[in-house]
């Protein structure tokens, strides 16, 4: 015979005497001597009786208590311990409450070793920090879906296409990181968001570069002797990227060769070794001129701390009324190699620190063409210091 249910009424609960009162179906009402009261579910599973708290009264009404009791009795009928199942669900819910802010920073920390300077320049994290976290940072990652991402990146999807692409890429990495932590996330959310956003209209533009024929005029105008001008001169003469040049340390230089540590390089996928840069006589002269400015061993220190910034060199050129930017001198150098020399392709690409050939080919090729590159760099320096077609560049 089934036990009667719904024995209690809402009106009589507050007047109940201290003790435990059954509502039927395993639901009990416990009135304490101090006037407080709570609900609990009594059930038996695996031969043992358990009492499971369902909340206090009157915060949990009789109707709500009955609904909860029925919910957990159904769990018991499935052969599960209701208390343990509720704890399991609570842990799962807490696990999925990790917000994107925390996941993003944890993902960044785990990738620092793979980033230049441990990511101190902020370029990896900034797309997230500027364009994603202000809107989605407080959301649990398990709740982020494609429409949230679409609405977040839509304002810059076409106007700042490259930044939006990087932000989308970083967010995808964060979702994969969350999944690796055991969180329930939609790993396809970023791909779905891209489908909603559509193809980007903005076309990537190359960094403006000075024609190689105009490099001598600009190089010879850098005669003020400032740290910025000396850095630009060496940047031109070596055709390296800005980062390794700005962080050039005196102990990296050995005579006429500058060895850039592998961790300071970019774009050399599959290469783990340091990169040697041949220094022309002019380059060695520039280093000697810059040496008195060195601080903590860094050849090009910043005004107050650290090293000179890439923006400092770019602003210097901007004040000269130039569209070209520091990184563009690599293009100037590469165009000169192609148009004014007979340098083999592999030598020219290696001079720019580009990885040449596949992994198998590289495993058999042991040379970095240092001496051939040294001859080219000497010719490049002579061009930069030549008096032919030199026009004095002045601020506009």
From TrEMBL:
**Swiss-Prot/TrEMBL keywords:** Coiled coil, DNA integration, DNA recombination, DNA-binding
Question: InterPro entries from the xrefs?
Answer: DNA_brk_join_enz, Integrase-like_cat_sf, Integrase_catalytic, Integrase_DNA-bd_sf, Integrase_DNA_bind_dom, Integrase_recombinase_N, Phage_int_M, Phage_Integrase
Q: What Gene3D superfamilies does this protein map onto?
A: 1.10.150.130, Integrase, DNA-binding domain, Intergrase catalytic core
Chain intervals for the UniProt region annotation (Disordered): 1-25
Q: What GO molecular function terms would the record report?
A: DNA binding
* Coiled coil (residue ranges): 62-103
Q: Which SUPFAM superfamilies match?
A: DNA breaking-rejoining enzymes
Q: Which residues form the Tyr recombinase domain?
A: 205-377
State a single Pfam family of this protein.
Answer: Phage_int_M
To which protein family does this belong? Answer: Belongs to the 'phage' integrase family.
Q: What is the name of the protein in this document?
A: DUF4102 domain-containing protein
